[in-house]
Amino acid sequence: MLIAALAALSLQAVPWAEPVRFAHRPGWTTGESGTVSLVGAWDGSRIRLRRPMSTAWIANAPYRDPATADPPARTLQQLVVRGRGVVVFALIEGVRDPKPFTRDLRRARRLLCCDGSPPSSYVSDWELSGHDPRNAYRVIVRVFMPLRPRAADVRAASTALRALRLPVPR
Q1: Rounded Cα distance, 59 and 62, in Å
Q2: Nearest to 158 by CA among 113, 105, 110, 106
């Protein structure tokens, strides 16, 4: 009983009023973790976070990972097999960031996804980060697309970014 009360108190201390999420878009699937302080690792173990976070995703390809998987490796393998598709993963955490968050893909850092090993080496990771409008928490968004995305993939990623719903800061 005491542990549950302490856990509830620690989650109340988060700087957002509700978890991050994506609005539904036709042809896309979405998911979210809620606000969590414990996540699963790739090997099945559980990791206790130093501070709570909230994650959400939107994809126009089959999503095969838990909501907190970063990167969503099994889902990205599907992008490689299909040769197309977009997955957008968003994370918020109670840390301040020096710059404001933008949804502009032209400002994204482009990285080779994951650890650079196949099949993920065939997926690019476009990363956007910054703070919410009041600088109460940090926003990190990773846009996963084929390494050589088509114009339709980039347009789809922009559509997905517009569906991101950042919570009101507390």
Answers
A1: 7
A2: 105
